[in-house]
Queue: 2 jobs
Job 1
Amino acid sequence: MFDNNRKTVLIAAAVTAILIFIGNILTNGGNAIVAGLSALLSVPFFLIGTRTLRRYRASLAERAELLPTDAANVVWDVYMNDIRVATITDDRLAAFQSQVADDWRNMVTQALNVLRVPLRMFDQFAVVIPAIAFWLILACALLAPDTLVSTLAAVQHASSQELHQGVALAMYTLFTIGLLTFIVHWVFTGYTYGLRNVYRDELEYVLRRYLKIAATGRLTISRLSHDAVYIYEPDLFGWLRAHTLARRTARTGKV
């Protein structure tokens, strides 16, 4: 039998799959096969993500209960703008992470921040896509004017169905080019379109207040162990990387 937590997770996974199925049906022209596959694929991803999140939160709770004399309760160095300003024990650090993760206001703020990202991207798309279309037409007029003239003539004599298909293909092509442009811009410039880690920002604020750090800037946490520097990453992905490194170290016997 499943306990209540597992039942809740399974119900949430089923609801998510149903919503994804309905959303795909409404947006892909009623293709039930694609919608069904999307819904089915969402279930294992949802379950794996939920299990990982529960393990992460359990790890924080376990670390927060460490005693000062426990060997695992290591001391971290806190740096502000690459200058060492304080130290903090691992149990206090985990306790602050749990406190930030438990605050529902951070979840709401993070969700709103994520939702604003596509809106910002859409605002820039509204400028980028027409600009790309203009330069493509200009390049075609300069390099292949006969092709442009024949294309315009074909548009004038096309049926409504052909026009609809042509416009859809053109918009899809322009959208793909615009998306690739955004990705290249993000990779080479690091621009995130306003996306930020709200939980990390809040944790830094809590740590500065607890450690009485008046300065602002880039806060990093690290420690030196066995002639190696370990950078602390206070989020789920950082925990996954640290967990993977610990398993590899335990298996090979070296860092």
Job 2
Amino acid sequence: MSWYENAVQKLDFPTIELFIKAGSDGEAIGNCPFSQRLFMILWLKGVIFNVTTVDLKRKPADLKDLAPGTNPPFMTFNGEVRVDVNKIEEFLEEKLNPPRFPKLAPKHPESNTAGIDVFAKFSAYIKNPRKDTNEGKYNQALLCSLLLATVSSLSLS
């Protein structure tokens, strides 16, 4: 029995394996904010978990079978595959709950949705490949998203 299996069994933790995007070297942890977010949630919850970095250029066949058509991040929780990052967060908060594990969910769940929307618009703006033709469209989407997030946060106060 590995140290991981032994620790999980003795501490009565769920068996969790997190599959995240590998860095440019194909092995180190990559720069995917969604992968890093799930890693941080598990770490802050204080559970023991395995991390497998996945080189998207050479994705192993067994991973294609485990989560067909899905790229990291995804995870297994007691053998059950979970692929949607937002649903994984909700699932972890539900399964790894107080008093044994700390609560990490925001007081107002709407704030999380607003943050996700702002991040998506910001990412599109930053990654815009054709600044000359698309800048106005992405600029407007980002500005609208930021204004809505600001208005939402003021109404929650």
